[in-house]
Amino acid sequence: MSSSFEKYQKRRLISSYFSVVISISLVLFLLGLLGLLILNTKKVADHFKEKIPVSIYLKDTAKEVEIKQLEKSLALADYTKSTQFISKEEAAESLSKEIGEDYMDFLGYNPLQNAIDVYLKADFVDEVKIEEIVSSLQQKNFVDEVDVSKPLISLLNDNIKKISFWVLLISGIFTFIAVLLINSSIRLSVYSKRFIIKTMQMVGATKSFIRKPFIWKSIRLGIVGAIVAIIGVGVVLFYLDKTFPELSLLKDIPLLVGLFLGVFGMGVIITWISTFFATQRFLNLRTDELYY
Description:
292 residues; alpha+beta; Alpha-Beta Plaits; 2 domains; 8% strand; rod-shaped
């Protein structure tokens, strides 16, 4: 009879520990993903900024040597990420594919111009800086027009600011909720041993002596939960890197190490604090209050 009761108690204990680990790992997994989003917000924003071209349309009278010199100077410019020369023939072929017919058959000539698409570095995708770049390019006598979508840049910058604000706000809310959830799981685990805590206290054990095994047990559970969460974040990170290789998510090793250490540290710190206050609460209760 006692053997079956002990097995039942052991199963309950394992079930309690398992639920705590699952709760901790799920919460830390979500926090890890949120941290991943925060750390890569600028990288994602920069990726979209660098996809907006500044198109330089050249006059038909532009000499090949002038075009080559312009390409070379653009490639060496501080603001340039990359350049692409598009001949009027390539532009015509691309346009014909888009509209589904060869418009030059009835026009009799190619009205398009040779162009150079300049993709700027993210730090220069700003209305004021772009205006300076456009002004300097328009001063060249063989440049016919410089075109850039200023409304799109303005909209992109505004949206990035808004998204950054909301991401930080949501991160704060989620962190608070995470602490509450882990704290609740730990308190339930400690609650099941409240009579043991009070018994130890009644036989003369000090508060620090009673708290110590509970704290170490919770820290170990927090470590296990953090490891599970880190593995989960790693899998998601690997998948995202395969899906969006242009973001180079796995190349910034110090950033990733910092993220994983942050998740691990959160698992240890939150469980330590939660267990400390949970055990302290039951240590301060009177014997008759343990039944409520």
